[in-house]
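Appendix B. Chain record.
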Amino acid sequence: MCPVLVALTALDLPTNSKIWIAYSGGLDSTVLLHASIQVFGSSRCRAIHINHQLNSISASWVEHCMRTTDHWQVDLTVDEVEVLTGNLEYQARLSRYSMFRQRVGSDDFLFTAHQLDDDIETLVWQFFTGRAMIGIPETRPLGSGTLCRPLLHVEKQELEAYAKQHELTWIEDESNKDTSFDRNWIRHELVPQLQKRFPQGKHRILDLKQATLPLVKREPLELPDQELTIEDIRAWLLAFEVNPPTSVLREIQLQVDAKADANPEIKVADGLFVRRYRKRLHVVKVYEEFTPLTIEVGRPIQLNNGNLTWKNSKQGFEEGRTLLCTNRLHLKEDQRSITGGGMHKKLANLFQESSIPPWLRDGWPVLCEGETVVSLVDIAMDTTSGSGREARTLVPIWHPFD
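C-alpha cells predicted for this chain:
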C-alpha cells in the first residue's frame, strides 16, 4: 500500500465522526481528498474550500473544486473570507482558520494536507527567525472538533506519485513560486541546496523537532519557580500558532510577577490575549455575549462561545422540555444563585469552586425556568423542578471554543 493510504488507514477515528477536508484545489489537498474518500467513503467526507478573494482567478479555482467534488460525489462547502491588511500570509491564515472553527462541529475532524516537506520548511523558518523549533503539530483542538494533519510524515514526492498514478488534476497557484515570500524562498532556494550538499539533512532537521516538541503543549502554561524566559513564552505561544513581537513577550514576562490578586491581560494577536490565573498563563479570546434564547432539552445548539450538547442521566431534565438559555449578565442580582435538592449557592461561588477562569464566566450558559436558575451548565443543576412525568432525562454539557 502506498504511504498516503497507509497514513490515513493508520488513523484511529470514531466511526460516527464527520471528516472535513481543507481543499484548496492544489496538488497536496487534491491527493488528501481523493485518498480520504478511498479510505473513509464519500458519505463521511466533506470538502471545504476557502476563497480568500486575493487572486483575480480565484473564481476559477472555486469552479475547479466544484467540478472535481461533483465528479467524486462528495459534498463541498465554499466560504468566502475577508483578509485584513498586514502580513498577508498570516492574515489569510487567521481568516481561514476562523471559518474552519465555525464549520467544524462537535467531534468532527478537519484534515489539512501539510506534508513532511512543509514541516521541514517550517522548522527552517523557525530557526532563522529565532523561534522555538516546534514545526507543525500533527493534531490540535479546533473549536469543538479536532484539526488533524495525517500526511505530516509523507514526503512531497510520494504525493506526486499518488497523483500521477490516479491521474488527478489540480490547480497551480503561481504565488507559491514567488520567492519574495520567506517560506517560498526556503522551499525553492534554500532546502534544495541543503539537500544537495547534505542528503540526510532533512531528517537531521526533523530530529531537532523531536528534541523540542515534548516541551511545548497547547494548554495553559504552569509558571515555574525560576524565571520564565522569553524563549519559553515564545515556544508556548507558537503551539497556539501565535507569534507576537519580542516586546510583547517581555511584557508577559514582567506580568508574571504581578500581584497575586491582579489579573493582567496582554494582547498577543487580534482577539487573543494572555491572562494569568492561579499560577498559570492562559491564551484566551474575547468571549462574546449571546442573546438569551429558548432551547429544547436534548437538542444541541451552537452559541457564540461554544457548543451546548446533552447526555443521558438518571437525574436530569426531561427530553423535550423548554428552558431559557442565558448568561449571568442577563440575570438580576437576586437571580444569580441556584436552589434545589438542599442546595443554595451563588453562581459566583460555584464558578470559584469549579476553578472557572474569570474571562469564561460571562459567556458561560445558565439555564432558567421562568426567572429561576435551574442549571449552571456542567457545574450545578436543580432537577427537582421537573414535571414528574416519565421521560428520558438528560444533562447539559458545555464545550467552550478554544
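Further analysis of this model is presented in Appendix C.
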